[in-house]
Amino acid sequence: MRETSAGLNLKEKDTTSVNVLLGVKDCVEDCVNKNDDIILQMDQLQESFRVLLANNIGKEAHIKQVNKMSEEFTVIKKSAKEVKKEITPLVNTAS
What pLDDT is stored for residue 95 in this prediction? Predict the structure, then answer.
């Protein structure tokens, strides 16, 4: 998720470069394409940790970590939507 987040950050990138725009576009597409799989995996982790915690095997900290990752992914999804809107005209003119 850190790589995707860094890939979506346009502040320090030259948006006039076609290669940079393609890299950002790839990060946006990865976020969109892998959305369902990532959400499913995080839901499975949350449920697994709940079962382990119920059986006194797991720790509450693990559930908190997965919840934090879910929140981070939500932020990344919002960022991907915003970046997509921002780069679409640039990608269209560069093509």
Answer: 63
SS3 string, 22-84, reads HHHHHHHHHHHHCHHHHHHHHHHHHHHHHHHHHCCCCCHHHHHHHHHHHHHHHHHHHHHHHHH
Structure letter (DSSP) for residue 8: H
Quote the number of domains for the chain.
1
Residue type, 42: M
User: Residue 75 and residue 80: Cα distance in Å, rounded?
Assistant: 9
Q: What's the rounded Cα separation, in Å, for the pair 70 and 66?
A: 6
Domain of 90 in residue numbering reads as 2-94
User: To which H or E segment does residue 88 belong?
Assistant: helix 60-94
Query: Rounded distance, CA 40 to CA 22, Å?
Result: 28
Q: What is the pTM of this model?
A: 0.79
